[in-house]
Amino acid sequence: MATPAPYATTEPAARWLDGDVALITGGAGGLGRAVALRYLAEGARVAVFDQDAEQLTALVGAAGGHADRVLAVTGDVRSTKDLHAAVAGAVERFGKLDILVPNAGIWDYHRSLTRLTGEELAAAFDEVFAVNVKGYLLAVEAAWRELVATRGSIINLWRNAVNVDTMVDTRPGHVNLALAPLFHIGGLNALTLRTLTRGVVVVRRSFDPEQCLADLVAHRVTSIFAVPAMFAALTRAPGFREADLSALRAVIVAGAAVPPQLIRDYAESHGVLLQQAWGLTETAPFATYLPAARTLEKTGSAGLPMPYTEVCLMVPGGGGVIDEPQVRGEICVRGPNVVAGYWNNQQATREAFDDAGWFHSGDIGYRNEDGHYYVVDRLKDMIISGGENVYPAEVERVLSSFPGVHEVAVVGIPDPKWGETVVAVLTCEPGVEPTLQEVRDFGSGRLARYKLPTRVVLAPELPRNASGKLVKGQVRDIVTHQAGPTGN
After folding, report:
1. What is the dihedral of CA 267, 271, 272, 274, to 10 degrees?
2. Are residues 386 and 409 in the same domain?
3. CA 321 to CA 464: how far, in whole Å?
4. In CATH, what number is assigned to the domain containing residue 42?
5. Total domain count, the chain
6. Which of 114, 135, 249, 459 is the most exposed place for a label (fewest CB within 10 A)?
7. Is the same domain home to 297 and 166?
8. Is 34 found in the same domain as 182?
9. Do 310 and 427 belong to one domain?
10. Integer Cα distance of 175 and 45 in angstroms
11. Cα separation of 222 and 216, whole Å?
């Protein structure tokens, strides 16, 4: 069973406009519904004006304990008379009106009323009415249907931006630091493309920890996407502890397993909440996201499905859907942010997409009882030792907390007895040289015995590609070039 979009549990993003009473026009469903629930979660009072009485009723129900702060007004958003009636109803119910969110909140079109008087206030309502009459939302949806048939890559990029703006604390005028290469979906479309239309993008050709730290401070960067290795390297840059990182809000970490200690380090040292996400190039890239408010509560989770995205677990190899919590399976994704297929490669498309439209990611994960997803590892990286499945990322997360260890890569190598055996490659601080027994003792309380390394290799650095991801083939080369079945 696919996990539904969690509108009722969407975490609030900080409001960037004054006031606490909002009127949302055409906002009973879709993006407008998400905007309304975000305002309610922040404590605001909301009047929702829409012609769809059934969706208005559903929105009030979704508000749950916040329903007493919702005013549902039925009317035609194209009618000045109905619009004025909705305004009057909001003022009568709540005593004032601070914020207008026209046409379901498309592209952050929020208008503050708290500093407007006289002609300015009248002009603001005229502007709202003009947006409604133009039917901007309807025009966008019509264009979307046409684009799906002709230019699917455009619409999935756009839908990702809608997902991000609905869930992440992104704002007009913010400053994004682009560290990952722009040929990588995370570098290009996690935050950068959407920022180009209404903010500032600082682009670096390559990642240098000291330069990155300087950019964060000098440019008052508010949003950034990076892989865990980049965030870890940044903590070792001179001056990190003293640096002013207070402007950071949307701090997205993805692309590899995220060590829980890394998340705690940022929270404790700077109050910065690393927000874990999961996705792939094919999902443009966000499929799940862990809101900032849940970062410490759900450390290690890749979060909840994005609002316009469906996520489920299936038995690898063509099996059925997994409904039970805590059961591992292949993570599958479906939605308008997912590509239609691979260019000029029908075979690859048939292998990755099933008849129901689900994209099979090749990642193994599980879902807990409250719907949060946890990514275990890539299916192709799984080690089979003595008939048992060992996921390298699980071992890497544990060993990354070993004192003095900077980075960990775990691979399987052929073994005549067990089929494959687990090898850990470590990079460490100067003077730190863990022995095999020390590493096994450290992991024994958190890992099953068959998951513990049978060999430890120390390396000056780990091979990574331009996107900062581990190159497992080259890690195996490091292991095979060092003699000895066990030990350092």
Report:
1. 30
2. yes
3. 34
4. 3.40.50.720
5. 3
6. 114
7. yes
8. no
9. no
10. 30
11. 8
Instruction: Give the whole-angstrom CA distance, residue 329 versus residue 2.
Output: 13
The pLDDT tens digits for 424-445 are 999 999 999 999 999 999 999 8
Task: Write down the pTM of the prediction.
Answer: 0.62
Give the strand pairing for 223-226 and 175-178. Answer: parallel
Same domain, 275 and 338: yes
Mean pLDDT of each 10-residue bin along the chain, 488 residues long:
31 45 70 76 83 85 88 78 79 79 52 56 56 44 45 69 87 89 85 86 92 96 92 94 95 88 93 95 92 90 92 89 94 90 84 92 92 89 86 91 93 86 93 94 92 94 83 88 54
Structural domain that includes position 393: 382-480
**Are 129 and 270 part of one and the same domain?**
no
Bridge partners (DSSP) listed for residue 455? 423, 487
The reply to whether 487 falls in a domain is no
- Within 227-328, strands assigned E span 250-253, 275-279, 286-289, 304-305, 310-314
What six digits make up the tokens of 217? Answer: 């401070």
The alpha carbon of residue 424 and the mean position of all alpha carbons in its chain are separated, in whole angstroms, by 29
Residue 371 CA to residue 305 CA, distance in Å, equals 9
Q: What angle do CA 153, 157, 159 make, to 5 degrees?
A: 115
Q: Structure tokens of 124?
A: 């603001």
In a domain, 144, yes or no: no
